[in-house]
Amino acid sequence: MKSTRLNMHDAKTHLSRHLAGLKPDDRLIICNRNRPVAEVRLLPQAKPRPRKFGLAKGAFRVRPVFFEPLPDDVLAGFEGRG
Fold this sequence. Notes:
alpha+beta
């Protein structure tokens, strides 16, 4: 485990750079006037689980009107003409 001490200004300015180089067991110690005030560590990565198909089957119904073309005034709004 590696600990890196950063002053408050460096942490605010370069936090993304320091986080990008962090390994799972490493930690950043944020200091205010050389006194530790916070510790930053990476969160454990959750393993993705496969999703089951059909979980929402029967939970809602899409009406046929959903598939009809939009009215001209609505299309004009999307295209910046209205």
